[in-house]
Design a protein that fits this description.
Number of helices of chain A: 19
Largest sheet of chain B: 5 strands, mixed
CATH topology of the largest domain in chain A: Rossmann fold
Shape of chain B: globular
Largest interface: A-B, 35 and 34 residues
Helix content of chain B: 25-40%
Number of domains of chain A: 3
Structural class of chain A: alpha/beta
CATH superfamily of the largest domain in chain A: NADH-ubiquinone oxidoreductase 51kDa subunit
CATH class of the largest domain in chain B: Alpha Beta
Helix content of chain A: 40-55%
Oligomer: heterodimer
Bound molecules: flavin mononucleotide, iron/sulfur cluster
Chain lengths: 424, 577
């Protein structure tokens, strides 16, 4: 079942406007323009589509909030920042099927009553930027964007904006600040962007993958979509499989699939002996090798004590030291913290230092308890998702592999020989 | 219309607050002070230190009470195990970076961070092995020292500088643990648009910002037998310095201040208010001249050096509007080292003039190259109110029990008009008292001009001077000044005369005043000044007998040749960065 990669995986498909249209592209927009925004919202809600950017917020509800906001003008923003390590699914869409995104954004604009859209694209995505630039031009030439789209009285334009390489700018409110030309730092929420977004106006902000589902939902109906995958979180999902698997890559699969199927059936199995999996990137918690039966959807993973996030599934075999991985994850967050709020700015710094100490034979018996307390407080008090999730991976590594940490701290021993275990 | 009321529960107490009230304020209304660091009542909400987090039923995480509005039916806990654990951890994290310097720190007694660490019972630093900051101090400015190592990145200084002062001299640079508060390209405060107003010092919760101290220079001068050391005190000091000795805000301590300074060993205790009266004579006549001879209007006051530096950077095209009068501090220095030095027969170079000011910008002003019209530097050292209090403390003087003493003559003689210079609108009111009587040759029946008093940032009035409709405006806080300047720049200013003070509330809210300084305290200091004015036997500058004497014996007439040389100055266009 392919919703998003249905064109891309076709032989000879080149993502041009001609090939997109020949596959039925822009039909959904035509249909949408003849419907009322309320009809579209009702299809979207029936589909039970939730955001694919990490927070899993119901998309229909998000659009409805923006539609019902009194302030004007309104905006549509596509989050194409894709900064989470191990995530490369949005790039696939941006580079190979840009019109699907453009069509979806136009539908979003029509539904919420916006005439301007922005795509905030990760700075390093040079090719995607060029492809999108050309695609927007072609869409305008073909009257799929611009004034009086497809003969209707609806007008909509899209501008591209390049990010500057900060991970936190993928967080929606930091993204909006960055889009406004400010330093990318999260805003106080509430108010949420659907009420106070870009330039303090109502703004629908969605991930690339989320939006890419919309044309097919319009064409086939919300009920059709809601029957794909898990009942309580339906649809397909792009899983980015990486790490110690035989066939890494992006796989579009129905949400109900188990982790085991994903790794074994599609990823060709583990390369080596499985130790742990990070199912949702460095912001998620490690699953142990005995948790492979978990279903790869938002609610199931949450129940299993982790999260799907952007579905960067990272497989770890038994040659990796968990102290080393915990250290590397906290290094990432220390580097990427925007520095605005105390628990994240200072907490990531101290967590990193403590893991470095552990890896250099300077760990102390009290470290684990202190780190656990730090994790709780960072989760409980950080201002945005970055700090709230920054200790998930490291904390779960400590929970699931306590003896490894114990040995580093008391025996000053890294059995896998990865940590230096001396001052460097 | 009364606003809608919200009912919520905080720590098992039913609370009712108007819609739009934050949880922080709602808690305060029932006597619970939730600890906080980045929150400041004069500034926008920042929600970043996370110290003010509280537990709210049905919310998955703790919420910052400063940034969360009270909602109907909300159930809040400000003091649960979970909240206390979070708060302590946050303070521990801040202290992990922090130099353990309290013993020698300028803020020692009044540091918000130190107090919170104490109150929360932080007795051990669990991140002690962590790296501390190791940044160089910014000592470029003659007024302000920044110690980035004590900075906890609360952003209050940045917000006051941009929101209240419309200057924006400092901002956060870099991200994560590398974040720093810096000037443009790290040029240093002296090399950017910083006005030296010191408002950032007042709002800083730690010792990261302080004045550049002149205490030891002053001690050295006092101890130098060859120096004749005179001290002048600005009006706003007498309404505030008591606070540094534990007296309530609004205590008027003119007499105790005078006797304490005498004990410190100053040779003469004089009053900047004498020079304020002199300013009124000069500035009043300048205004009358500009109005009758169709000179450049509106004319704007020049006694606030923070304001002067602001206009030099941001509105150089408006410099012709600024009165050419020096500030009272500088008039005093120039007169002390000429008129008075001559009177007592000592050479200007043997006299040492100290000012005690509510202001940090006055340190910069005294160092301006044009301020040496006596032949040597006119004002040798400037102390803030806080530094003066520290000297009195160092000398072990029991300030609160000191007898009341008078200023020395003649440069200690002043009027009520000069006292109110310390409050926003005071220069305007003093000028109106004199201008009215000089222009009309009639006696002013009611000397109070209430329209220009008070804590509003912008005040306007139209004054009937015997048929002449004089339109005046008063601004305090540079963001308010900016509004008036933009009108002038566009040629749309309806005013004849404008008073501008850089600091909120005027000098009584100056960057050199006791900490804390806030709206409530500013109001009380203002009330003290107006009380002092009311009790003065003479309340109009032109009736000051010492002023009459200096014109007779020395200056001859306002705006005369000597005045021009000693009491007036010029301004410099400065860069933007
Ligand atoms: C630190 C951080 C980084 C994020 N990075 C991204 C990102 O790169 N791309 C993305 O779509 N969402 C990212 N998000 C999630 C967004 O904040 C937001 O929830 C999402 O873009 C909303 O779109 P959706 O409802 O379609 O998922 C990030 C969140 C956090 C806290
Ligand atoms: S949690 Fe981290 S990234 Fe988010 S606002 Fe706080 S410091 Fe910035
Ligand atoms: S700033 Fe406060 S906590 Fe820091 S050294 Fe000074 S008094 Fe101590
Ligand atoms: S002294 Fe005034 S102008 Fe200078 S940085 Fe501080 S607040 Fe800004
Ligand atoms: S210098 Fe002071 S006011 Fe400014 S951010 Fe640092 S601690 Fe806060």
């Amino acid at each position: 079942m392919k919703v998003i990669l249905k064109n891309i995986e076709k032989e000879g498909y080149d993502g041009s406007i001609a090939s997109y249209i020949s596959e039925g592209g822009y039909e959904a927009l035509k249909i949408a323009l003849k419907k009322t925004p309320e009809d579209i919202l009702s299809e979207l809600k029936k589909s039970k589509l939730v955001g694919r950017g990490g927070a899993a917020f119901p998309t229909g509800m998000k659009w409805e909030f923006a539609r019902n906001s009194k302030e004007t003008p309104k905006y549509v923003v596509c989050n194409a920042d894709e900064g989470e390590p191990g995530t490369f699914k949005d790039r696939l869409i941006l580079e190979n099927d840009p019109h699907m995104l453009i069509e979806a954004m136009a539908i979003a604009g029509f539904t919420v009553g916006a005439s301007q859209g922005f795509i905030y694209i990760r700075g390093e995505y040079f090719k995607a930027y060029d492809v999108l630039t050309a695609a927007i031009e072609d869409a305008v030439k073909n009257n799929c964007l611009g004034n009086n789209i497809l003969g209707s009285d609806f007008s909509f334009n899209i501008s591209l904006y390049r990010g500057a390489g900060a991970y936190v700018c993928g967080e929606e409110t930091a993204l909006l600040d960055s889009l406004e030309g400010k330093k990318g730092q999260s805003r106080v929420k509430p108010p949420f962007p659907t009420f106070v977004g870009y330039q303090n106006k109502p703004t629908v902000l969605n991930n690339v993958e989320t939006l890419s589902n919309v044309p097919q939902i319009i064409l086939n109906g919300g009920d059709w979509y809601s029957k794909i995958g898990s009942a309580d979180c339906p649809g397909t999902k792009l899983y980015c499989l990486s790490g110690d698997v035989k066939k890494p890559g992006v796989y579009e699969l129905p949400t109900g699939i188990t982790l085991k199927e994903l790794i074994d059936t599609y990823g060709g199995g583990v390369d080596g002996k499985l130790k742990a999996v990070l199912p949702g990137g460095v912001s998620s918690s490690f699953l142990a090798a005995d948790q492979l039966d978990v279903k790869m959807d938002y609610p199931s993973l949450q129940k299993a004590g982790s999260m799907l996030g952007s579905a960067a599934v990272m497989v770890v075999n038994d040659t990796h030291c968990m102290v080393d991985l915990a250290k590397r994850c906290t290094e990432f967050f220390d580097y990427e913290s925007c520095g605005k709020c105390t628990p994240c700015r200072e907490g990531t710094k101290r967590a990193r230092e403590i893991f470095i100490n552990m890896s250099q034979a300077a760990g102390e018996a009290t470290d684990i308890a202190l780190l656990k307390e730090l994790q709780d407080v960072m989760y409980d008090t950080s201002r945005c998702g970055l700090g709230q999730a920054a200790m998930n991976a490291a904390g779960s590594a400590m929970d699931k592999f306590p003896s490894e940490f114990e040995k580093h701290i008391t025996k000053k021993n890294c059995e896998l020989g990865i940590c230096p275990m001396e001052k460097v | 219309m009364a606003s809608k009321m919200i009912n919520l529960t905080i720590d098992n107490n039913k609370v009712q607050v108007p819609e739009g009230t934050t949880v922080l304020k709602a808690a305060k209304s029932i006597g619970v002070n939730v600890p906080n660091l980045c929150f400041h009542e004069d500034l926008s909400i920042y929600g970043a230190c996370r110290l003010c987090v509280v537990e709210i039923e049905k919310h998955p995480r703790l919420e910052p009470s400063c940034a969360t509005l009270a909602e109907e039916g909300m159930v809040v806990k400000t003091n649960s195990t979970r909240v206390r654990k979070a708060r302590r951890m946050i303070v521990e994290l801040l202290l992990a970076n922090h130099p353990e310097d309290c013993l020698t720190c300028d803020r020692n007694q009044i540091c918000e961070l130190r107090k919170i660490a104490h109150d929360l019972g932080i007795r051990k630093l669990r991140f002690e092995k962590g790296r501390k900051y190791d940044y160089a101090l910014d000592e470029s400015s003659p007024s302000i020292v920044r110690d980035p190592n004590k900075c906890i990145q609360c952003g209050r200084c940045i917000r006051v500088c941009s929101e209240v002062q419309a200057v924006g001299a400092i901002d956060f640079v870099d991200r994560g643990g590398r974040t720093q508060v810096l000037t443009f390209l790290n040029k240093g405060l002296d090399n950017v648009e910083c006005t030296n107003c010191g408002q950032c010092i007042l709002v800083c919760p730690t010792g990261a910002l302080r004045e550049k101290t002149a205490v030891d220079d002053v001690w050295a001068a006092i101890d130098d037998p060859k120096k004749f050391v005179v001290v002048q005190t600005a009006p706003a000091v007498r309404a505030a310095i008591g606070e540094d000795f534990g007296m309530p805000a609004g205590s008027l301590v003119t007499g105790k201040m005078t006797s304490s300074l005498r004990r410190l060993g100053f040779d003469k205790i004089f009053d900047t208010q004498f020079a304020a009266d002199l300013t009124i004579m000069e500035e009043g006549h300048e205004l009358i001249g500009r109005v009758t001879n169709k000179g450049v209007l509106p004319m704007i006051t020049s006694c606030s050096p923070g304001w002067i530096k602001y206009v030099e950077h941001f509105f150089p095209e408006c410099l012709a509007h600024i009165s050419s009068c020096k500030s009272p501090q500088q008039m005093f220095g120039a007169v002390a080292k000429t008129y008075y030095a001559d009177k007592i027969g000592i050479k200007p170079e043997d006299m040492y003039v100290v000012s005690i000011m509510p202001c940090t910008a006055k340190k910069f002003e005294a160092e301006r190259p044009e301020m040496n019209d006596s032949g040597v530097i006119d004002v040798d050292a400037v102390l803030t109110t806080r530094e003066a209090a520290r000297m009195i403390q160092e000398a072990g003087i029991d300030f609160t029990n000191m007898p009341d003493e008078d200023f020395d003559k003649p440069l200690g003689i002043s009027t009520g008009a000069a006292t109110i210079f310390g409050a926003s609108g005071g220069v305007m009111e003093a000028a109106l008292r004199t201008a009215y009587e000089v222009i009309t040759s009639k006696t002013l029946e009611k000397v109070e001009f209430e329209q220009v008093r008070g804590m509003d940032g912008l005040k306007t009035a139209t004054v009937d001077v015997d048929g002449l409709e004089l339109k005046v405006a008063v601004a305090n806080g540079l963001a308010n000044a900016k509004v008036l300047l933009e009108q002038i720049a566009k040629g749309e200013s309806p005013y004849h005369f404008i008073e501008i003070m850089a600091c909120p509330g005027g000098c009584l809210g100056g960057g050199g005043q006791p900490i804390p300084t806030n709206l409530e305290i500013r109001k009380k200091r203002a009330a003290a000044l107006y009380r002092e004015d009311e009790g003065m036997p003479i309340r109009k500058s032109h009736e000051n007998p010492a002023i009459t004497a200096i014109y007779e014996e020395f200056l001859e007439k306002p705006l005369g040749e000597k005045s021009h040389h000693l009491l007036h100055t010029s301004y410099t266009k400065r860069e933007r960065y």
